[in-house]
Amino acid sequence: MFTRLALSKEHGHSLTFMAHDIKLATSKIGLRKSTGPDKLKAEHYKYAPTNMFSSLAIFFYSCLAHCHLPLKMLDVNVKPILKKKGLNEKMSSNYRPIALATATSKIFEHALFSKISAHLQTGRWQFGYKASHGTELAIFSLKSIVSQYRSKNTSLLVCFMDASKAFDNVLHAKLCLKLLDRNVPSSIVSIFYFWCKMQNFRVMWDNTMSRSFSVDKSVRQGGVLNPYLFNVYMDGLGTQLSLSGIGCKVDRIFCNNLFYADDIVKLSVIFNLKKIALYSQFKYFPEYHTNLKLVLH
Q1: Distance CA 167, CA 108 (A)
Q2: DSSP code of residue 19
């Protein structure tokens, strides 16, 4: 990865931020939200003097130019919340970690997203974290595919899969390589890698804070960019399945897999009791199990 980054930097990438870019990014962070380690709210930035946007634009440009971010800006508080009411509060597995980042980092993420969103597009099989998509559309697509085959008296096998702790097992170097494959500017990929490796976390429990710690993998849930980065991380599997020529298709388009973030549905026609095409699709999973360390079940 470092060799590719070095080669990319030799060609150079001009990426600048203007005051209006920062103003737009600031407008996208939500109001009345819990604060991060810096104790600054979105309101502090939204209602600040307009010359602040020019100062932040210069600051963010300098961060990219030097591939460095202030470490305090990267601090994250992690707040565990119950996955749903009624669960045993004494079992850690019943909690979902929510990351509370600094307001400055959120603005920076929104500003970066405006520059690279075109590079983060994923295939038609992904319904999570995409505009005009959602669980309803994913369920409708699944029902439509099944209905079409049932109307022709054709049996289907449908396999529901889930990537265990998927967000927590994203390998930073592998993610950066996938971003480089999509022609994301090397300066941004470098700052992502620095961000992932240098950020520190502390767990909040009532009024108590844990000691700080770092992580060597994962994209944190609650981040602005991280859901899109996770989709990029998983997109190769959807591409391989769709190009396999195995499974269901509608109007000559293969629809053999549907994704909602880390939840996967695989669909295949049953040719006969001894030959099931669904099984043939599993040969595309070793890369994500072995190389990318994602456990699918």
Answers
A1: 21
A2: H
Q: What is the CA radius of gyration of the chain?
A: 22
Q: For residue range 66-102, what is the model confidence (pLDDT) as tens digits?
A: 999 999 999 999 999 998 888 998 898 899 888 899 9
CA atoms within 13 A on the CB side of 225: 27
CB contact at 8 A, 91 and 51: no
- In whole angstroms, what is the distance from residue 148 CA to residue 154 CA? 9
For residue 82, the surrounding DSSP H or E stretch is strand 76-82
Cβ neighbour number for residue 75 with a 10 Å cutoff: 19
| End-to-end C-alpha distance for the chain, whole angstroms | 29
Q: What is the pLDDT of residues 223-256, one digit of tens each?
A: 889 999 999 999 988 898 888 888 888 888 889 8
**C-beta separation of 106 from 224 below 8 A:** yes
> CA-to-CA distance for 169 and 290, rounded, in angstroms?
12
Q: 206, 218 in Cβ contact below 8 A?
A: no
Three-state secondary structure string covering the chain: CHHHHHHHHHHCCCCCCCHHHHHHHHHCCCCCCCCCCCCCCHHHHHCCCCHHHHHHHHHHHHHHHHCCCCHHHHCEEEEEEECCCCCCCCCHHHEEEEEEECHHHHHHHHHHHHHHHHHHCCCCCECCCCCCCCHHHHHHHHHHHHHHHHCCCCCEEEEEEEEECCHHHCCHHHHHHHHHHCCCCHHHHHHHHHHHHHCCEEEEECCEECCCECCCCCCCCCCCCHHHHHHHHHHHHHHHHHCCCCCCEECCEECCEEEECCEEEEEEEECCCCCEHHHHHHHHCHHHHHHCCCEEC
- Distance, in Å, from the CA atom of 262 to the CA atom of 66, rounded to the nearest integer, reads 34
